Structure formats: C-alpha cells, structure tokens
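Box 3.1. Reading complex inputs
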Amino acid sequence: MVKFNRFTLDNGLRVIVHEDSTTPMAVLNILYDVGARDENPEQTGFAHLFEHLMFGGSLNIPDYDQPLQRVGGENNAFTSNDLTNYYITLPSANIETAFWLESDRMLSLAFSKKSLEVQRNVVIEEFKQRYLNQPYGDVWLKLRPMVYKKHPYQWATIGKEIKHIEDAKIEDVKAFFKKHYNPQNAIMVVGGDVKTAEVKKLAEKWFGPIPAGEKYHRNLPQEPEQHEERRDTVTAKVPLNDVYIAFQMGDRLDESYYVAELISDILSRGNSSRLYRNLVKEKQLFSEVHAYMTGSLDKGMFVFEGKPLENVTTEAAEAAIWEELERLKTEEVPADELTKVKNKTESTMIFSEMSLLDKAMNLAQFELLGDADMLNKETGKYIEVTAAQIKALANKIFRKDNSTTLIYLAEKVA
Amino acid sequence: MTLNRKTAPAFGAIDNINLLHPGHQKLDNGCNVFCFNSGDQELVRIEWVFANQRFNPDKPLLNVAVNTMLTEGTASLTSSQIADKVDFYGAFLQVDYGYDNSQVTLFSLNKHLKHTLPVIKDIITNSIFPEKELETYIRNQQQKLQVSLQKNDFVARRVFNNALYGNTLYGLGADADTFKTLRREDMLAHFKQMYQPSNCTIIIAGKIEPNILELITNTFDKDWANSTVKPDSSQPEIEEAVEHFYFVEKPDALQSAIRMGAPIINRTHPDFPALQVLNTVLGGYFGSRLMANIREDKGYTYGIGSGMSSLKQGGAIFIATEVGADVCKAAITEIEKELNLLKTELIPTEELSLVRNFMLGSLLGSLENVLSHADKFKNLYFAGLDYDYYDRYVDTVKTVTADRLQQLANVYLNFDNFYKVIVGKY
C-alpha cells in the first residue's frame, strides 16, 4: 500500500506527495506526457534528443547538473514511445534545490546552439553504441515498422535513422518544447522525508508562476487490426541465428492487460516457466528464449525472442514456440501454475515498496494512466484473472494472421 | 516579492551518515550468521556467502560452474522442482559468482519462509550436478559466449583483466574449449570442499522476527556438518603481463571500446578513500573531468567513466568508454590530458567542494533500506575491515586537501604505465 496526497496547481500541474520518514532522502520525479509516438514522422528521435537537451541549461540556470551535485543529489531521465521521465534524488533537507532546477527548465530552456551540437553528437554515438554496433542491436528498427503500419509506434525512441538527428535545428527544438513541455502536460511526484504542506508551498512558489501553455491534444492514427501473417529474414554479422515473433495486443488500459502479463509470466518468468523448462531444458532447442510485452499506452506488442542452438533450424525453433502457444489455446492453465504466477506478482509489488524511486515512478505512471491510486489496486487485478480468461486471450492474440516474424540469420564468415 | 530564479536556494551539508550494525551469532558447525533487522515490509533477504576455492589452471571453471549449477538438481529435487517450489511461494532464488566469493541468495516473504528455506538447505547440502544439466550448461554458455565476444566492451574487459591478472580467477577469460574441461566428478568434489559451514557466512536482512531467525538458525545448524576435506581459499600469486598495449581489430566497428588502467591498492590500504575522491573527480560522476571533456565538450561518446575495484588480492583503477571509431586516437589523447592535469594542477576549491557533497549525498542515497545496510557490511567484512572504515571514508571525503589529491595523482595516475586495450578501430 503506497499512501499519497494529491493536488493540482492552477496552471494544470498535477502534484502527488508520498511521505516516507524512514529515509533521509527525497525524490522529485517529473513525468512529461510526451514520447516518441508524438513525433513528426520526418523528425523522429526528437523526444529522446530533447531529453538530452533538457540538461543543457535553462533560462536562469546555465548548468543543471552542478548545482544538484553540490547539494548531494543525483539525477537521471529516460524516454519511451509514450513518455519522458526525469527524476532527482537528494538529501531531503535540500529539496528546494530540486524545485528550483525543475521549475526553471519547465519554464524555459536556454536553447544554446553549442548544446544542440554536442548532444546531437552524443545521441548519434548512443545510436551507434546501442543499436548499430551491437549484435541484433537494430532489431527494433526493423521489427517495429513491420508490426505497426499506421501508428507512430512504427519507429523506435532512438529514431528511424541517424539523419533525422543530424538534421535537427534549434527552431525545431524550440517548437517541440513549446508544444509539450508545459505544466498541463506534466505530473510531479515528490516522495520521501517530506511533508505535504511543505511540498505544496514549494510547488506554488516555484511552479505556480509558470504559464499553463497550450494543451496538447493527441490525435494519432490508430493501428488497424492485423489480418495477415508478416515475415522477414535478414542476414547479419551476428554469431547466432535469432528468432523474433511479435503479436499485436491490447493497450495498457485494456482489461486484457493483466491477463496478458500473467501469460508472459507463465511462459517466461523464472526457471519454472514454460519456455525455459520445455524449450531450453527439456527439448534443448534454444540456448535462451524469452517472452515479454511492451505495455505501451496504445496498442501493444507481445514479443517472443529466442536463439536456437546451432543444430536446430529456425523453422524448428519457430514451430516449438507455436507448439507452446497452441497448448495455451487448448488447455487451461492448472490451478497451481496460476497460483504461482499470482504469488510472484504479489511478492514483487511488496519488494518494490522498498525503493523510494520505484514508488515515485510508479505513482507518476499510474497518474498518467488516470489515477495514481491504481498502483494500490494492481495486485487485486492480477489475483482476479482466471484460467478461462487466459485461454480466451491466447486464442485471440496468438494467431498466425496476427503475427510478425523476423529471423536473423548469422552470416557465415569463412 | 518577485521570485529570484537566478540564485540557488540555501542548502545544508550532510552531517551524519548512520550505518546499521548487525547482530552476530556463530553456529555450532562454525557458520557465522549476521542479522540486520529493520523495516516494515514482512520479508527477508538471506545470503549464503562462500569463499571461492583455490584456482586450478587445469580445471579453471569450477568455482563459477558449481555456483551457477546449484539450481540444477539435488538428490531429492530436480531442477524444475527446485524452480517450482521457489516460484510457487513468490520467492526469488539467485546464485551469484564473484571474483572472491560466490553466493546463494533467497528473497522471501516471511509468511512463506518455512516452505522456501528447506529448498535452499537442500541445494547447499545435496546438489548433484546431473550430467544432462551439465551438458546443457556447457552448450548454452558456449552459445552466449559467441554473442558476448561480438560486443566490444566485453572483449575489452576480458583482455584488460587477463593482462592485469594473468591466469587466475580474476584474469581468466573462458573460451568455448575451456568449458570442455568441466567434469561432474570434479564439480562434486569442489562442491563438497567449498559449500560447507566453516566456509559459510549467512547474512540476513529484513524484518527478522524471532521465529524467523529461529527457523533459519535451526535449519542451518542441524544436519549440516563440515566435510573431511578442509576448504582452501588460498590463491596463486598474480603475474601481470609484460605487454601493456593491446589492439583487437574489428574492421566494421562504428565504435571502439577503450579500457585502460593499472593494478593499484585495495580498500585495506590507507590511501583508498582519498583515491576514491580523486577517482570521482576524474571520472566518477556525470560532471567529471572525463565526461565534461570527452562527452559534453567533444561529443566523442555516449559515456565515459573511471572506477576502482577492490578485491582480496589487490585492486585496480580503470577508465572505460566506447567512442566513435574515427575519434579513438583523439579520445585517448584527451584521456591522457585529463590524467596529466590532475598531476600538475590543484583541483579548484569549488569543484572539490561539489565533489565532496556529491559523494556524501551519494553515500546517503545508497542507504535506501535495510538491504543496503547489509551490503555496506559485506564490503567491510570480506575485506577484513571494521566500521571505522566508513568513519574514515566520510572524514576523508570531507577534509582531504587538493594538495594531497595532487600527490596521489602523481603516485597512481601514470598514463605511460597503464595497460591499454582498444577493441574496434585505432
């Protein structure tokens, strides 16, 4: 149970406070309702590039990091297809520094050309390091556009190509900020050794004066249902073959989400999971195989990935995965197995309450979904899932004509 | 009154960092048990830590393979039964191999501990390393290695460790053939010698109610005897390589991984805390000299940093990064520049003050919950140190002078003596 208080400033900023006096630290987490899905298809990678620029100095504060380090604080941020999240952790006695820093960069960035130049290069290096210079690194650049034909999820957060980042101009950056980085589009969570009354005062003082700005109304093209099998094979300088199979599934707020999560647990969570037990251990077809979901706010992806052993063809590997899926579609999950994954879920929620930052980020993300209190109702939703629901959802999602298969073939080097 | 956004708010220095000390008891069979009892969540993390056994160059993978395969079957439970039992109760079982010690870790809700604990007892006393599971392990590790060897930073780390530490637990880089040396009989013998009470330290952290502690001590004091073969955690002497420069070419690389550094002191040496301050300035945080120059100013990399390792048989200082392949030489020039700067010029007062506060804030922030306090204890205990180490550390961070840091730079930051590894293009 994560307790919290909530209020909204006049300019639309939603604020959540989680008091926890067992720690001497405080966390200030700001979530902006903007992600890669909100980008212009000719200017992808922008939300992420922008996240970098947020550290390049704001209107009144030329350097973001140093003042924070000076008061013993640490910070980081991440961008996804759905959202951009920034957080600060610091000794609670110095919480006002966090308010000062975050409010100024919500007010306005410095928008220096040098900062854009440097961060452009840094992001290009990140593109190379994580997506181009790693074996299988470019999988999402290939797989996403196969699964999503209309929806902006068709490009990855890093961007479609390096060129989009190379071409970014300072005017584009300013326009992006104006459109998305305002109080109405933000959720702030303050947690730790703090009191709600004090947080309210600080929020009014530092964030109150920021103009509300224009509300961004999201109107993205919906991804239509898939009704045909999609496949591609690429040959790459990778050491082993790799098989990816993706299925379209419901969005985060769909009631099927909880059912799907338990399916992924049954298939792939821990050493007693089906894929590990049957395909890695018993049948010895893969050296590793995993199933997971993107959990995105719009239509999601349920993904299987596995590296077949060298004496196993990719056809046989694919067939083995499908066999497991057929089992889920024809046989109800036994009671013990279902209890097991529910116990794991309950346990994970309790362990996550030991991390102040996890609590703060969860509160922010659930508030984005509509109500931070959903966090406290999560376990209950999982416990309600029935074996019949699992079977029904498996039949709905795991169909050949809802599947996209991407095979990496290892280029044999003489 | 208009809001002044240009001036930073007032702030306070960090005064007290309070570490929890454990309760201790020694079981009849020689096993030491340490307890950290705190927090509201009704759960525990229990760690069984064992000292690695003496490295045998003919059978180099015993320590890691035996530890990893503790989950793969006992005389009474198959691998899948072990997994089922643990997972059914929402618990988490982990095995971790370390350079000096290897361990088994259980995370469990207190209400289920009576079901999950016996499984751990079984794997620590009765593991049998079934032949079929061993074959699977070898095969899968060989596969994973093939992928890892395509990652430049992985290769750089291997080559670096091998240069510094030679053919020892610290320096060994297994290749596909190394796995073929694994034999079940050797693993059983190693298991008996290493996983016994006199070689075990149990560390419990969480809400340790009396019945919970009793359950744990009863389970691990009764029916767990020492072997007739005494444990041997002595290690052969380390021989550093003569060669100091290694270039592994990857013709298609878009980036080059760079790793450089040298063996130096470990945590038991009085210079260590002050050297950690110097290391932080050099490359231990986002505003460090290396980051500010090579990432933020030049844009050569997504990340660069420096670090220090402390192991039983010594420690090392190292700098690691992946840079654009075309700027590899330029990046190395800049690294040398930063190292030399710390030797020739005093760190300015403001910068040092910022680093002091950052390090103390970082230490404070790392004490998130009772598990973190147990982690700090492990750093001390296995290095043979006392809690006054942290008092000295905090004191050093607060008071070490710029002069002293410059002295240390001249002793420890010698670019010319560093081992240098480049994987990619040069």
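In summary: The two ends of chain A are 59 Å apart (CA to CA).
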